[in-house]
Design a protein that fits this description.
The complex is a heterodimer of chains A (474) and B (231).
Chain A lengths: L20 E2 L3 E3 L4 E3 L4 H18 L1 H9 L3 H25 L6 H9 L1 H36 L8 H22 L4 H30 L15 H11 L8 H4 L7 H30 L2 H7 L3 H46 L18 H17 L2 H29 L15 H14 L4 H21 L10
Antiparallel strand pairs in A: 1-2, 2-3
Helix pairs in contact in A: 1-7, 1-10, 1-12, 2-8, 2-11, 3-8, 3-10, 3-14, 3-15, 4-5, 4-14, 5-6, 5-12, 5-13, 5-14, 5-16, 6-12, 6-13, 7-10, 7-12, 12-13, 14-15, 14-16
Chain B lengths: L2 E7 L8 H6 L4 E9 L6 H25 L4 E8 L2 H12 L3 E4 L8 E5 L6 H12 L5 E7 L3 H16 L4 E6 L4 H8 L5 E5 L5 H6 L2 H9 L3 E4 L2 H5 L1
Parallel strand pairs in B: 1-2, 1-4, 2-3, 5-6, 5-8, 6-7, 8-9
Antiparallel strand pairs in B: 4-9
Classes of the chains: A mainly alpha (474), B alpha/beta (231).
Chain lengths: 474, 231
Amino acid sequence: MSDQPTGTNIEGDAPVVETVVETDEATVTDDAELERTLGLVGGLAIGVGTMIGAGIFVFPGLAGAEVGTAATVSFAVSGVVALLVALPTSELATAMPKSGGGYYFISRGLGTLAGTVVGLSLWLGLVFATAFYLVGLGFYALDALAMVGVSVGASSGVVVSALAVLSGIGFTVLNVTGTENAAKLQNGIVALLLSMLVAFLAFGMFDVLGVIGTKPSGGTEADQWAALPILSTAALVFTSYLGFAQVATVAGEMKRPGRNLPVAMIGSVVIVTVMYVLTIFVATSVFDRGQLGQFGETAMVEVGRELLGVGGAFIIIVGGLLATMSSANASILSTSRAIYGVSKDALLPRWASRINLRYGTPHVALGMAGGPIIVLAATREVQLLAEVASFLHLIMYGLICVALVAIRRDEPEWYDPAFRVPGGPAIPVVGAVSSFGLIAFMDPRSIAVGAVVILATAGWYLYYARDVKLRGVL
Amino acid sequence: MTHVLVPVAVLEGEAVSPGLMNLLGTVDVTVLGYHVLPEQTPPDQARLQYEDHATDALEDLTDEFRTAGGAADSRLVFTHNREQTVERVADEIGANALAISGPTGDVEQVLVSLSGDVAVERILSFVTELVGDRDIGVTLFLVTDEEATTQRLESAAERLRRDGISVRTTVVASDSPFEALIDEVPGHDAVIMGEKAPSFRSLVFGEESDRVASASVGPVLVVRSAETLDT
């Protein structure tokens, strides 16, 4: 079926590769079968559940403060970029429905160096993203405390850090000790969240559209309808779209992968794009730039209060807590699968994917996710965390598009995707250019941190796994 | 040939009692070794770590089934969802029945429940195949208060007797078929029952067969219905 891998890492381990047969319901290896247990709803819940937290509950204040109502365009641009990547990712995922997602495609399409860089930066990118979600959770928890009358006074920043760190520890412990029904819980939370948001947005849209012309909106600071600020805001809010590719990290567990993977990935991008654009429209119509800037991370709470009074603020706080929790939890899950993917290919030590005998969970990988998440969450640097997460993901997204073009050019015998992106190389090429292009609009500090991470992962490749060959090995 | 699927939580040290192995000596057996993982753990990752250990245990178990008399093979599955795996493998091998393992000694008398909306015909042919020419007595059990269904039980008993099986019948009028069945279990070494369509009760309390297995502390054989075999 495919070439054998050659070479070993510095410890003498070779990648674990064997011939398997993929069916709609299981992966069949020589001696064992691996059941595919995630359905379409589960896949959508991972995609939507990871994405919906940040975009709606943390960014309206920050993005609205930059460009006002023009932020709707920023979110739409980000959504289009995400869609341009989701299509190639879907094609590759249906051809290679394995754990590890983007890492897997790139290591097979472009070789070990690109694979190592992406595999490790997928891990670290998810770490940055999760830290960002947790800081968002901290801000919402602070508002929740304020609502029930607990005032923390001047030290609110410290309290946010403490809450973020505590919830980071909580999620890591929860994932290691494991609850069987976490997936159902995640599905339930996403369903609850979506129905709350749809109701809220429907009300908000009626109100905003009715208000226009009858009374002036909150403030007078004008929207910024210019390309550069819109694009740089798009680069910031792109973190809201890190999630559809996480569906690919569980591709090995998805039932009917040929149908469910593309529908879950593309569907979740479309769903959240619509929700984001509407939310931003409502938020920036209720308040102007200056006001949103003052409210900051939890501006949506004020939007809720303005539209529906205390009840509205309460709905948004509960929604924000649920959304940031589900984002953080889903990302921690994806992180441990990303680590497993590279460890199986001997790019990280094999012990990184050991399973705990007592709980049956990958405690080392979860620790490698949770540890750095907690440190980063303590920094409370919302914008930096979000942009570095986007940077690392955008590198992967761009390379996924390149990998698609490369694999299609070679068209190896094993390459038989159930879903093909229409239009030849056009979509992956535009996807790659826009992914890399979006990075240029980020804050220089974020670009610097992201570049350091990429260089460090390349250094790890040279030190640890220079002799491992993965290209074309299925 | 009649085919029975025996799911075993192979890495949790679940054993199959010698009594059940002997009882299944007349039919083909597929031992389904499964390991359920929390969703944090990709099945593939667990396989890398546990496959050798699980394969050894499963081979030993399969050999014991062969020694007990029947043809036996095995499948090993790593999964997040036990029910889904059991259903899939049962469909793939066209299993006539599933065994829920439970401790028992030599089987001398089996309790066959015909209560409720079950495929009586399939259950009777399964019992005939299973008992074969062995000296195993059968108790046909029915919870009902209607005369007509009692006659159905008698004709079922008559059919088994024609195949040379020693049959007793028990009819009970009760509001609670489940309790009545459990009360009848003492004096029997295994329970055979039909698969029922999922109901509200089974959603809340779990599959009836699983509850019978845990309440009766013995093996239960669940004969699959025709609908699930066809689809």
